[in-house]
Amino acid sequence: MITAQTTRQRCRQTLGAWLHGRRRPVEATPASWALLAPVGDRVAEIEAVAEQMHGALRVMIDPHFTPGACTWCAPARPELATVRVCGDPDPDREDLKPLFAVEVCHRCAVNPRTGAVRQALIEAGPHRLVEVEVCE
Ligand SMILES: [Zn+2]
């Protein structure tokens, strides 16, 4: 038994050294920035939400957009906020927390069920314009 144990230990040591020698430097995880889809794609996705809902929406590109943490994501894993949704809630509606302006990540903006764009469009109704600004 002692021999078996020693053999296993030796095996592990050898394997450890081998792995260590072969290990490549781990590449840094790309910043969320680098993972951003091209601005044209992002704008098209936002416009598609409005089209589906027959809502009035204007998307603009804000070259001075300073991305922060998305406030709609789970607080433990906030994505980078790259979309500013400026709603124009109909005052005749009685929404609990109408959306006037919020900066969220792209995913939280275009989510088909809970997205900020969807909420703003619902609250604006058919006669008000929702404005969306995206970072470049
Ligand atoms: Zn988010």
Structural class assignment: alpha+beta
Bound chemical compounds: zinc ion
Spatial order of the strands forming the largest sheet? 1-4-2-3
Helicity level, as a percent range? Answer: 25-40%
Order of helices and strands: HHHEEEHHE
User: What does the overall shape look like?
Assistant: elongated
Characterize the biggest β-sheet.
4 strands, mixed
Strand content: 5-15%
What's the tally of helices?
A: 5
Q: Using DSSP, what is the number of strands? A: 4
Tell me the count of domains.
1
Spatial gap, N to C terminus:
66 Å
The unreliable regions are none
Average pLDDT, to the nearest integer?
A: 86
How large, in whole angstroms, is the Cα Rg? 24 Å
Describe the structure.
With about 140 residues, this protein is of the alpha+beta class. The protein has one domain. About 40% of the residues lie in helices and about 15% in strands. The protein contains 5 helices and 4 strands. The longest helix is centred in the first third of the chain and has 21 residues. Zinc ion (ZN) binds next to α4.
Write the layout of secondary structure elements.
Blueprint: H1 2-22, H2 32-35, H3 39-53, E1 57-62, E2 83-86, E3 101-104, H4 106-110, H5 116-124, E4 130-135
Parallel strand pairs: 1-4
Antiparallel strand pairs: 2-3, 2-4
This protein binds zinc ion (ZN).
Zinc ion is lined by residues 70, 72-73, 79, 104-105, 107-108.
Short description:
This protein has 136 residues and is an alpha+beta fold. The chain has helices spanning 2-22, 32-35, 39-53, 106-110, 116-124; strands at 57-62, 83-86, 101-104, 130-135. It has one domain (32-135).
